[in-house]
Amino acid sequence: MYIYNYRLFDRHRQRVASLAILGDERAEWRPDRYGYELWGCEVSLRFPIVKLLDYQEQSARLAAAGGYRRKPGRVLP
Fold first, then answer.
1. Measured between alpha carbons, how far is 49 from 24 in angstroms, rounded to an integer?
2. In this structure, which of 4, 15, 18, 57 has its CB flanked by the most CB atoms within 10 Å?
3. How many distinct structural domains can be found in the chain?
4. Contact call for residues 20 and 32 (beta carbons, < 8 A)
5. Do the domain assignments include residue 32?
6. d(Cα 36, Cα 34) in Å, to the nearest integer?
7. Does the model's pTM come out above 0.85?
């Protein structure tokens, strides 16, 4: 996440907003930051998350609300 963020900024010289969409099955796992410290130098990135598991009970209602259309996909080799 951090690498994509700084590379986009470096290339386009525009501020970048990062967002994590978590599609795993672990309800407790919610990483919202990346960072490290080395020899007194600290690097960190905090970002909002969306956990798809939180919307599992609402999936039928969300699909019925419109805006969601399943499009046939293509299988890539």
1. 12
2. 18
3. 1
4. yes
5. yes
6. 7
7. no
